[in-house]
């Protein structure tokens, strides 16, 4: 008999919510709890949940002095990896996992913001029947490199490591498949106020707003992946 799934979501700030993840979890009647990493460094025992989801956020993996709570989170992720737990990382979450797997994570040579195409390796069982290319929502200045032993799942011309699978129970996405239109609109406000976010791969708020309808297809793709990962 399969163990009842129980999900722990690690959130780094109110500005980076779980998004469409909650809709999917509710549709599957999967219980979940949200741990706010920036407010609580006392993590639950790994045996109290079956699936860890680590969200994105403004901090970067090398900013422990500015965000000292990252130390406890990294230790917790390492424990989860050692316990062979099912783990999903989104943007910062994927970078933190890659870091704990010994991969290099650092500032990229350019920002990647807005709707960008990425390739998908559909030979992996978790991405079976996926289109060879999809458009995803991006908002990052840092990048991870492929952890040793991991399989590259996604890439594009801006960043050659966009997603990976490590073993059969750890997945990391550089992009934001959980993005909702509400959250993307909030990102537009931040983008308008921050002139440091610029470059050839940074779309304007107007360009992003004009493409909001792509969220429907991205969410469908993400939910198909989650359905497969649920049974992994």
CA distance, first residue to last residue: 14 Å
Order of helices and strands: EHEEHEHEEEEEHHH
CATH-derived architecture: 3-Layer(aba) Sandwich
Question: CATH homologous superfamily?
Answer: Class I glutamine amidotransferase (GATase) domain
Number of structural domains: 1
Structural class comes to: alpha/beta
Largest sheet: 9 strands, mixed
Proportion of β residues? Answer: 25-35%
Kindly state the number of beta strands.
9
How would you write the strand order of the largest sheet? Answer: 2-1-3-4-9-8-7-5-6
Q: According to CATH, what is the topology?
A: Rossmann fold
What's the alpha carbon Rg, rounded to whole Å? 17 Å
Which CATH C-level class is it? Alpha Beta
Helix content: 25-40%
Note the overall shape: globular
Unreliable runs, pLDDT <50, ≥5 residues? none
- What's the average pLDDT? 95
Number of helices: 6
């Amino acid at each position: 008999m399969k163990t009842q799934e129980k999900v722990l979501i690690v959130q780094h700030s109110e500005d980076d919510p779980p998004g469409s993840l909650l809709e999917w979890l509710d549709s599957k009647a999967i219980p979940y709890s949200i741990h706010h990493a920036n407010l609580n460094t006392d993590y639950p025992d790994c045996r109290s949940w079956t699936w860890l989801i680590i969200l994105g956020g403004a901090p970067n993996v090398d900013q422990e002095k500015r965000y000292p709570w990252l130390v406890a989170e990294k230790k917790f992720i390492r424990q989860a990896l050692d316990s062979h737990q099912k783990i999903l990382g989104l943007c910062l979450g994927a970078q933190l996992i890659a870091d704990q797997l010994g991969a290099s994570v650092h500032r990229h040579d350019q920002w990647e913001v807005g709707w960008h195409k990425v390739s998908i390796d559909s030979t992996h069982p978790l991405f079976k029947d996926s289109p060879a290319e999809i458009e995803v929502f991006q908002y990052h200045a840092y990048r991870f490199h492929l952890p040793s032993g991991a399989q590259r799942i996604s890439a594009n011309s801006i960043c050659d490591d966009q997603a990976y699978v490590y073993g059969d129970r750890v997945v990391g996405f550089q992009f934001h498949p959980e993005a909702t239109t509400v959250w993307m609109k909030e990102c537009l406000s931040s983008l308008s106020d921050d002139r440091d976010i610029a470059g050839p791969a940074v779309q304007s708020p107007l360009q992003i707003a004009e493409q909001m309808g792509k969220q429907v297809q991205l969410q469908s793709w993400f939910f198909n992946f989650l359905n497969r990962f649920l049974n992994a």
